[in-house]
Design brief:
Layout: E1 23-24, E2 46-47, E3 61-66, H1 67-72, E4 88-96, E5 113-118, H2 125-139, H3 143-146, E6 159-165, H4 213-225, E7 235-241, H5 243-254, E8 277-283, E9 294-297, H6 301-306, H7 313-316, E10 319-322
Parallel strand pairs: 5-6, 5-7, 7-8
Antiparallel strand pairs: 1-2, 3-4, 4-6, 9-10
């Protein structure tokens, strides 16, 4: 219905009860202030349906990144958890269906599941909040999910959805009265550097330290694993799409966070048996990291014919071969 959208193409959620994202192909993507964004890669229809796209209904929050976390990723022998009084180098921007959940004195006893959605190269974290919030609403009604042994359908109020925003200097960061938002270069030395775990840019002379995007993700994960803040959290799902899929796979392979269990500090804030189960979902990445020392080689007929192992050229084409 035409009256479901306002002049900027945003869904009028006051008159629509559904939580689903619907395609509105006539609109441009908008930033957090409701202004159209013109990007050459925005060729697909945009989803503009959930409450997060009301101008007054979505806020950018910040997760403080302590100095110890910036140092820990460079020296794995350091502790990555910090106290609330420690100095910070900046804050990681994020959206959430529960608002600001990173206050030092906040405890969320109702949360049993957390979903972290990592955006792609478009850095449209708000879109991921919208989509994942709709998924949570769907799952809460899914009888198939409920029929699985020893599982109950998660109620929306028990699910925390977080969409971190790995900002670049081109993103026109919203104003903040506290710590500056941490950003990652989007062009140099390669496009979308956050997906490779690059170091952040230096916010200013006062906060003259950087952190890997993987290190910032560890801080977010460990916030959720801290039983002081989420005493009943049972599972964490980290999902990334496209460049976000590249990010979450590389991050999960390289992370030494105590949230994954094991390690020097695994039992300091939560016994390993009491840690939430962490699942990483890699969706539609342009490339995957190899998991072992095998590499995919297409061998020429001549190369295969020179081998004395009795394998025909056809058998050699498209095989995983140990790489030395």
């Amino acid at each position: 219905q035409s009256d479901q959208f306002d002049g900027l193409g945003r869904r009028n959620t006051h008159s629509v009860k559904e939580h689903y994202c619907r395609i509105n192909s006539t609109t441009h993507p908008i930033d957090n202030q409701g202004r159209p964004i013109k990007n050459k890669y925005e060729t697909m229809p945009r989803y503009r349906a959930c409450e997060s796209f009301k101008r007054d209904g979505i806020d950018v929050h910040g997760l403080p990144i302590p100095v110890s976390a910036a140092l820990a990723y460079k020296n794995s022998s350091l502790v990555t958890q910090s106290d609330s009084k420690e100095q910070c180098i900046g804050q990681l921007a994020y959206y959430s269906n529960k608002g600001q959940f990173t206050e030092d004195d906040r405890t969320d006893s109702d949360i049993t599941t957390a979903v972290i959605g990592v955006h792609g190269s478009g850095r449209d974290a708000g879109t991921y909040l919208c989509a994942l919030t709709a998924v949570v609403a769907d799952i809460s009604k899914d009888q198939t999910f409920a029929s699985k042994k020893d599982q109950r359908r998660p109620l929306p109020k028990a699910v925390l959805v977080v969409a971190p925003w790995f900002m670049s200097p081109e993103d026109n960061a919203p104003p903040t009265s506290s710590l500056p938002y941490i950003q990652w270069d989007d062009q140099y030395p390669i496009p979308h550097t956050f997906r490779y775990g690059a170091e952040s840019t230096k916010p200013d002379l006062k906060h003259n330290m950087t952190i890997s995007s993987f290190g910032a993700m560890d801080v977010l994960l460990e916030r959720l694993c801290d039983r002081k803040h989420f005493p009943n959290l049972r599972r964490i799902v980290v999902v990334g799409h496209s460049a976000g899929g590249q990010f979450v796979q590389r991050w999960a392979l390289s992370s030494n966070s105590w949230c994954f269990g094991g390690g020097q500090f695994a039992n300091r804030w939560a016994p390993e048996a009491d840690l939430p189960h962490v699942r990483v979902v890699v969706a539609n990445p342009r490339s995957f990291a190899y998991l072992d020392n095998r590499r995919y080689f297409t061998l020429s007929d001549q190369t295969a014919a020179d081998d004395d192992d009795g394998i025909s050229p056809a058998d050699n084409v498209g095989t995983l071969t140990p790489f030395d």
